[in-house]
Amino acid sequence: MRDKIDAAKKAGDTIGGIVQTVVEGVPVGIGSYVHYDRKLDGRIAQGVVSINAFKGVSFGEGFKCAELPGSEVQDEILYDAEQGYYRGSNHLGGFEGGMSNGMPIVVSGVMKPIPTLYKPLNSVDINTKEPFKASIERSDSCAVPAASVVMENVVAFELAKAVLEEFHSNHIDQLKEQIEAQRQINIEY
């Protein structure tokens, strides 16, 4: 990655990239399979594509799922007496029908190259309507490393909101107790 950033800088260009955030330990059943505005994957997707320069989001195997048959994409449900129900794979990135399924949540965000170039593009002067070269501004060659921190926090914020909607607690100790009680119910079910 550093070599690509250095090469872009040397060429007076910029590059984008893909950022991935993985969250473990999200309780089962956070989100909604019914209400479009409460689907957890939808809320996270909206948050991620709202980050400046982000143009796409996917979960788990993401767009690769379109190339595979359903038998290779769906995460089989398994059972173990100690851990309860679980999935044998995580192709869908921790979601089932808009809700968390207990597997790690895997979010990938696509960031476009930033537009401030040392190699200016053609543009048009809005006063004269004549062509000219865009101005040169101070520019990073790649903002993806910094954006990874932003995306991680956006995902965490959306998860925190959804968890607090599901578990009505006003103290962290109460919240932990409620989540643990829910986990035990899921195991015993």
Structure description:
The chain is an alpha+beta fold. The protein has a single domain (2-115, 140-188), classed as Chorismate synthase AroC (Chorismate synthase, AroC fold, 4-Layer Sandwich). It contains five helices and nine strands. The chain has helices at residues 2-10, 40-49, 70-73, 144-166, 172-188; strands at residues 17-23, 54-59, 77-80, 84-87, 95-96, 99-100, 105-111, 122-124, 131-133. The strands form four sheets. A three-stranded antiparallel beta sheet has the order 1-7-2, with helices on one face. A two-stranded antiparallel ribbon has the order 3-4. Strands 5-6 form a two-stranded antiparallel sheet. Helix 2 packs antiparallel against helix 4. The longest helix has 23 residues, at 144-166. This is chorismate synthase.
